[in-house]
Specification:
Blueprint lengths: L15 E5 L9 H17 L4 E4 L13 H9 L6 E8 L5 H14 L4 E6 L6 H8 L10 H14 L18 H4 L12 E5 L2 H10 L3 E3 L8 H11 L11 E9 L3 H19 L9 H6 L4 H11 L2 E4 L1 H15 L3 E5 L5 H14 L6
Parallel strand pairs: 1-2, 1-9, 2-3, 3-4, 4-5, 5-6, 6-7, 7-8, 7-9
Helix pairs in contact: 1-13, 2-3, 3-5, 7-8, 9-11, 12-13
């Protein structure tokens, strides 16, 4: 399926894509972060990156991506070719009909270039998830997520069977418009991807014959087992004849290796604060340099940075090549976490240069 599989550009071993968290640095605003997202999407499009995804997070001051559909609509207005999508929408937070309507609208705005990536985690803490869902019963288990996924798929395809309570309900924009008198409907429908950081979604994606995206950037120890499980579980479908898996990779390239270390230290401090229940804006490198990590904090710092590929462009290229070879990933989706938007934009530019990606 052309909407899923991609072709590697330049000397990259597999297609390269972008995952944007719309990070907000200290001293910056959400407006600044969203402007950077537009700059990143334009750069990604011009340099041959295949997709640009936005991840749903909530109640995190340093992450301004609480509304992926809104951001994607904005990016659609500023790009022409690059695929846009969610990496992902956290399905348990929303009614399936709402997601079908939102992504049907995005498909109408950007025909043939919208991906719908779905996750079953809340993308936040339990209290915030309860507020989002108007309930403290947080169901993300083996029964609820597949059922929600099946319901969403039927809304997207408009094919509830006769007698189903939702058989007369239609997600608009959507296929029902082609059945109305004089109706003409786009042949495209956003392809569904399953996202995961463990084996649950890997197995489900394989059983359903769907593409799979694994969060290597925060669950590296599970990457190879999850991808193996996905491939072993895979059953051919109308969507895919063979498995297709991408992995999210934390990667940051700078002109000098020392600067990469400074930026990654700031990102690590931000993640440490999040894990300690004190989420905030991404600190400046100067603040991070002056922060003294305690013994347990230092252990976290070393563990977290071990899964970040950073340094000069050549060092990052070598790290990405090695990771792809170890995992057999069909696509690498790069996410950069740094205080300044200019640093992030430069990183993707350097990586594109390192692989000889095309210039528009």
């Amino acid at each position: 399926m052309d909407e899923i599989r991609a072709t590697a550009q330049g000397t990259a071993p597999v297609p390269l894509s972008v995952l944007d968290l719309v990070t907000v640095g200290a001293g910056r605003t959400a407006t600044d972060a969203l402007r950077t997202s537009v700059d990143l999407a334009r750069l990604a499009e011009s340099r041959g990156y295949h997709r640009f995804w936005v991840a749903e997070h909530h109640s995190m001051p340093g992450v301004a991506s609480s509304s992926p559909a809104v951001i994607l609509a904005h990016l659609a207005a500023h790009t022409e070719r690059i695929r846009l999508g969610s990496g992902g929408v956290m399905l348990p937070n929303h009614a399936p009909l709402v997601i079908a309507e939102q992504f049907g609208t995005l498909e109408a705005l950007a025909p043939g270039r919208v991906d719908l990536g779905l996750g079953r985690a809340p993308g936040t803490d339990g209290a915030t998830a309860a507020a989002l869902r108007r309930t403290d019963q947080l169901n993300e288990g083996a029964d609820d997520f597949p059922q929600q996924l099946a319901e969403l798929t039927r809304f997207l395809d408009d094919d509830f069977p006769d007698g189903h309570p939702y058989s007369r309900i239609h997600a608009v924009p959507g296929p029902v418009q082609s059945t109305s008198p004089g109706g003409v409907q786009s042949p495209h429908r956003p392809p569904i991807w399953l996202l995961g950081s463990s084996g649950f979604s890997a197995r489900l994606a394989g059983m359903l014959g769907l593409p799979f995206a694994f969060a290597h950037h925060f669950s590296a120890q599970n990457t190879v087992p999850a991808l193996d499980l996905y491939r072993e579980s895979f059953r051919p479908s109308a969507v895919l004849e063979a498995p297709y898996a991408l992995i999210g990779v934390a990667a940051l390239a700078t002109d000098e290796e020392k600067e990469a270390r400074r930026q990654v230290r700031a990102a690590a401090l931000n993640m440490l604060r999040l894990r300690m229940g004190r989420p905030g804006l991404v600190p400046t490198p100067e603040e991070a340099e002056s922060y003294e990590f305690g013994p347990l904090e230092q252990e976290f710092f070393e563990s977290w940075t071990a899964n970040v590929i950073y340094g000069t462009a050549d060092e990052v290229r070598a790290g990405l090549d090695g990771l792809q070879k170890r995992t057999g990933a069909d696509e690498l989706m790069l996410t950069s976490n740094a205080h300044g938007g200019d640093v992030r934009v430069r990183s993707y530019e350097l990586i594109a240069d390192a692989y000889g990606l095309p210039t528009a």
